[in-house]
Amino acid sequence: MKRKIKYNQKGFTLIEVMITVAISGIILGGIFATYSSQQKTYISSDHLAEMQQNLRSATLIMSSEIREAGCDPTQKANADILVATSTQLRFTRDIAGHVLNPFQGDGDVDDANEDITFGFSPANDANSDGIADAGVANLGRDRNDGAGFQPIAENIQSIEFHYILEDGTTATTPTFSQLPEIRAVQISILARASAIDKTFINAATYTTGTGTVWGPFNDNYKRRFVTTTIHCRNLGL
Fold first, then answer.
1. Is the predicted pLDDT of residue 63 greater than 90, yes or no?
2. Within 13 Å and on the Cβ side, how many CA atoms surround 83?
3. Which of 131, 179, 193, 233 gives 47 a disulfide partner, CB atoms 3.0 to 4.6 angstroms apart?
């Protein structure tokens, strides 16, 4: 007598498979959405940190060196502010040590790093309005060392210099006779992110020391703005 063999025919139905696929899709979609959100947050934070670093770099360098404008230990170098406009600042300082006394100047401002200019280079701001021609540019420093303007901060959109005179009044572009009266420099800088953020619209405005309003730009770039006042401790001595 033949034995009947029973086969286990249990398995997944089409509906069960479809449900499993749907649930897996939801889970994977959630994972992707979380990853995408975290990535965007990271990129946005990275851009913000980059702008903050650029502004910090610019203000630290300019603050340190502008404070030395007019430094003239021997009283022979005639160190002073030479050019003061809303877009560029040029000054001299006698900081090269004398061969007999490294703690004194050498009586002139002919050495490298003694004739300083801050601002955009003419190549980046052809019409000298303090706004980068290409949208953003390197904020530069010319140290009279033959190298021309070298970057001190990247992705800077605008810069403005504003001057506080000895009597407390201010001037955006001091006259030649007012140059010796400058006692402090107020600097406004606007940095822009290196890439757009499609989820963001920048409708903000930024007001400089002179009251000039930059913006609104109504674009997808995030920006950071800073205004700092630097007192020139060697001027008026």
1. yes
2. 11
3. 193
